[in-house]
Amino acid sequence: MQRKHFLATAAALALAAAAPAALAQAPGKLKVGFMLPATGTFAALGTAIDNGFRLYVTEQGGKIAGREVEFVRVDDESDPAKATDNVNKLIKRDNVDVIIGSVHSGVAMAMAKAAKESGTLLIVPNAGAAAVTGPMCAQNIFRSSFSNWQPGYAMGEVAAKKGHKRMVTITWKYAAGDEAVLGFKEGFEKNGGKVIKELNLPFPGVEFQALLTEIAALKPDAVFTFFAGGGAVKFVKDYSAAGLKKSIPLYGSGFLTDGTLDAQGADADGLLTTLHYADGMKSKRDADFRLAYAKTYKLQPDVYAVQGYDAAQMLAIGLNATKGNAKDTKGFAEALRKAKIDSPRGAFTLSRSHNPVQDIYLRKVVGKENVLEGVASKALADPGLGCRM
Ligand code: BEZ
Q1: Measured in angstroms, how far is the CA atom of residue 44 from the centroid of ligand 1?
Q2: E-strand stretches of 173-315
Q3: Ligand 1 nearest atom to the CA of residue 174, by list position
Q4: pTM of the predicted structure, to 2 decimals
Q5: Tally of CB atoms within 10 A around 366
Q6: How many whole angstroms separate alpha carbon 177 and alpha carbon 90?
Q7: By alpha-carbon position, which residue is closest to atom 5 of ligand 1?
Q8: Which pLDDT tens digit goes with each residue over 200-253?
């Protein structure tokens, strides 16, 4: 009897000793929490990010760092007021290994706060809020997209080089609009231009008429704008319908015409914008990506799809280095800081605050494409002001 008890105890002990090793080999499914808009003016942007991310995972056989990927998704409605509750659903209720989101800068700032407090990995696949890779920067927070400053700054330089002197800006009044305008002003005014008026309206408003009348009265040399998604479609159409397109050139950060050209039609023709992606990149990497995306979704990819795809690539680079351990944020960050990310946009690295250092392209709308005109700003790095890591 005693010997039987001894054998049972020994067997139990052996099992317990073997358990950590077995767990290390098979850490279970990797839970990815998408916090993206599925409704509202940015709904299509959320879908493209989701598509891009899943495409990369499918290309890896459904696994990242050997772990089968499972998705959980929350519709954040691009509403900052609901963002803390929404992100906590993913972190505390669903226990995700990594959060992917979001599109809206105000939502992303709430996500960064929650990620910083909980230590959960966060990869931002769009929102360009300066704070995320500035004062809120952290070892576990990364961005696969851009900072709002980057395309704005590049367009400021382009507009000045075109000889414009007096310009008006128009955007939504929130972090993304404010920071895009700040970047534009810096690039424009450094090079001899002057922003004579900054116009704005609350997000996600589309009542542009009074502001367009004001632009007509101000008679600037040109206008710079940040709008995206459904709001960008309406703005481009209203600008043209007001008769301004013929007399006052319109420039924008490239969100103005990315993923929107089918709806904007001829009203977008000829518009010049700056962004970290374009049609006609002429690289094999981009051609392969576009073919795979078109085959899978029967759609052409846009910048948001690329950012989603690259968020998944970044996750794979980090987790391959930590053998799938999402809690090892130190090892994850070390791997990404050294990495060159092989993006369809062109390879990019991350700054010390974890924002892409990347080429910003000048694009021109021709038909249904944002055709590459050239590089507006080579390897442009966001200043990452206020980041201490
Ligand atoms: C933002 O809120 O940061 C944003 C939204 C749409 C496109 C680009 C930036």
Answers
A1: 12
A2: 194-201, 222-226, 250-253, 272-275
A3: 2
A4: 0.93
A5: 16
A6: 28
A7: 104
A8: 999 999 999 999 999 999 999 999 999 999 999 999 999 999 999 999 999 999
